[in-house]
Input
Amino acid sequence: MRVALVHDWLNNLGGAERVLIELHKIFPDASIYALFYNKKFVKEHLPDAKIIPSGLQKFPFVTKTYPFLLPLMPSAIESFDMSDYDVVISSSVIFSKGLILKPKTRHICYCYSPTRFLWDRHTEYEHSSWPAKLAQHLLRIWDRQASERVDTFVAISENVRDRIQKYYRRDAKIIYPPVSITTLKVVNDKSVDNLGYYLIVSRLHPYKNIDIAIEAFNKLVYELVVVGDGPDMGRLKNMAGKNIKLVGYKSDKEVAEYYRNCKAFIMPQEEDFGLTPLEAMSFGKPVLALRKGGALETITEGLHGEFFDDPIPEALADGIRRLNENYGSYDQMEIRYQAMKFSTERFKREILELFK
Output
């Protein structure tokens, strides 16, 4: 059986790219098709993979200018000739679900979410110019039609399955993403430390709500470490007090040490699933999360951490208070056991069951 993998683009390492890497470990001989790729990214994370890009790869500085090429991406994804494959697995952030395949080729779409800026977040773009609004409208029509080309939808969470049903009118099987950072190897390690700081690991974009955490910690004066980079870095640095450190991008090995040494993990944003809380939990660390999205499927309040209800500094600060009051009641091994349910072995087993 010939299998191919398809991903929107290979530019930076995020949760979707970590899943793609795990898929390639399951199917090491599979070629990876992408609209375009960053050579440095591929060399570091997929050195043995055969990468086949679309014509967009020829555009100068495509890894930086690609947002301007969005109107061209539907036709680019449809241009791939995949007639030689029996099964195609699309790791779909936006466009790769839109492949046009022959009837004999089965299309399994591992869907991270129906395209957020076209559907449940479309009102955030109402300030756009009328050409941008028109492009958004046309992309929404294409996105809905593209969803009908998929044979089997796989959702990363119940939260995403519900949105697939709502926007695409399709049923989906749930296969949770794997915790692929090497933290799960420490489940029997008794030397996990607690240096007293709270930790956030995230890309720095406005919708990640890192500013809410910074405002709360400015008043709490507890030490907060923020790992990650992004366009919001400058603004967040200007907001942060002396008790808050924004340390930028770190390697997986370095991030694991931050997990190991923190007191607790903070997730102030809604995520479709949320891998970083589980990475922290694999070290036995409790989590404070916004009570929305995928966190509701992985964190049990009072057992693995706490929730706060509103994305405002006051609610987050109250969550920190409750987490500190209950800190002695959290069982590290129970928290680690919860993280182990999302192992790479479980992911591989459930993916291969799709082929039976």
About this structure: The chain has two domains: 3-175, 182-340. Confidence is low (pLDDT under 50) at residues 183-188.
